[in-house]
Amino acid sequence: MKARDSQLSERLQTGFLGVIAFGLILALLVQARFILICLAFAIIIFSLTSDAISAFARLKVPNWLATTLALIAITVGVLWAATAVVSQINEVVSTSIAYSDRAQAVLSSLSQRWGPKAQESITTFLGNIDVAGWIRSAAAQASNLISGSVLILTFVGFMFSERIWFPIKIERLTGDATRAGEVMGIIHTIMRRVNRYLVVKAAISAVTAALIWALFRAAGLELAGAIATLTFILNFIPTIGSIIAMVITAAVILAQTGDPTTTVVVGGLATMVHFVIGNIFDPMLLGQTLRLSSFGIVLALAFWGAVWGIAGTFLAVPIMVAVMIVCAQIPWLRPVAVLLSQEGVPEQEPPRRLRA
């Protein structure tokens, strides 16, 4: 009896300590989110660039030259992307504010056809929506991209300086060459799968953005480039990103034209583009790459979106891939990996489990 009480007390104590540890980690993730978000993006950029450098090395390009060219390309690319996104968002802000009154007037006129009660409800709903305030808030958050880009570039530079010594540090930390090889194998698996996901997702998003741009140009609408850019970025958020992009597209069309027919036609074509690519090509190309549970992806989006905001929704899938692969190699965490995987098989090849 005493042994059973002692065991129960030990389990309760362990659970209590686990809850405290989770709370502390969650508080750290929230308080240091700017630095951690920049670090996560830096790791992704470093991972993508490392594969490129390895490809150049196979072409017998000197490592120092490939690294230097990579750093220059990363610097130019990150700063250009940040400034381009900020400029496109500012263009959407200025144009949307100018058209917001027109859009609300159109919606109010349409609501008159549905009777006085519906008109009153819609008018009250629209009156509680501060569109201009939301757009200005989004623009203010977008302006943080520049400072974040500088911090990301700093992280990437130091990662490259530590690139040669990292395997040696892993071996000395583990104290065993075999175990160090297992750790490096897990890291390479994470990098390979995340890189493949990002490359395929970028190609799919680029095709979607190009089709949306073509629709806007064919309809003679403004902000074709800005909407295409936002579509490309939002498509990196699974499921929710496409819905947000469709809503923004329809709102911009209605605000510009004030014509419900044009909004339905062009918005319907844009919705069809998102539907076909998101439900046919996206799962077909990414199914074997991710091997993630759809419900797990939704949970990851909800959790990281609550912790890190918009940036967390972009990072949710890469983080989930890393967690699944790591848990698959640790015996007592393997059930977590099985739950996160699509078919209950988190790894494509036979696992090389780490000793717990």
Task: Tell me what the structure shows.
Belongs to the autoinducer-2 exporter (AI-2E) (TC 2.A.86) family. It comes from Paracoccus limosus. InterPro entries: AI-2E-like. With 356 residues, the protein is mainly α. The protein has a domain at 33-163. 85% of the residues lie in helices and 0% in strands. The chain has 13 helices and no strands. It has helices at residues 2-31, 33-58, 63-111, 116-127, 131-161, 166-174, 177-218, 224-234, 240-257, 260-290, 294-308, 310-329, 334-340. The radius of gyration is 24 Å and the shape is globular. Residues 349-356 have low confidence and may be disordered.
Quick overview:
The protein has a domain at 33-163.
What sequence of helices (H) and strands (E) makes up the elements?
A: HHHHHHHHHHHHH
Helix content: over 70%
User: Helical region count?
Assistant: 13
Strand fraction equals under 5%
Content-based structural category: mainly alpha
Output mean pLDDT: 76
How far is the first residue's CA from the last residue's CA? 31 Å
- The gyration radius over C-alpha positions equals 24 Å
Let me know the number of strands: 0
Please give the largest β-sheet. Answer: none
Q: Which word captures the global form?
A: globular
Low-confidence runs of at least 5 consecutive residues: 349-356
Transmembrane segments: 12-28, 34-57, 64-86, 138-160, 198-216, 236-255, 262-281, 301-326
Protein name: AI-2E family transporter
Subcellular location: Membrane
Organism: Paracoccus limosus
